[in-house]
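Might you be able to review the protein record set out just below?
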Amino acid sequence: MFISAGYSLGQACSFAYLCSPMERYWNSSIPGSCINSVLAFVVTAGLNVGADIAVLLLPIWLLRDLRMALRQKIALVLLFMTGGL
């Protein structure tokens, strides 16, 4: 949770300051500079996908030591993973 909140806060700050001055983002006639917004969006998407995969795989890590049949373990992991959809 702290990792997700941390990179989300960083992303929010980076999106707030994509361009300097901020008005240049929607009005390109204003003098100033902007960072590569496409790259910023791709990095954000990659971090979000990575966090989603980690959350989906977390039940496997937590339930691997349970003493039950493999079939039941698989069913339980799949049940917990449906919460991420």
Summary: Residues 37-63 form the longest helix (27 residues).
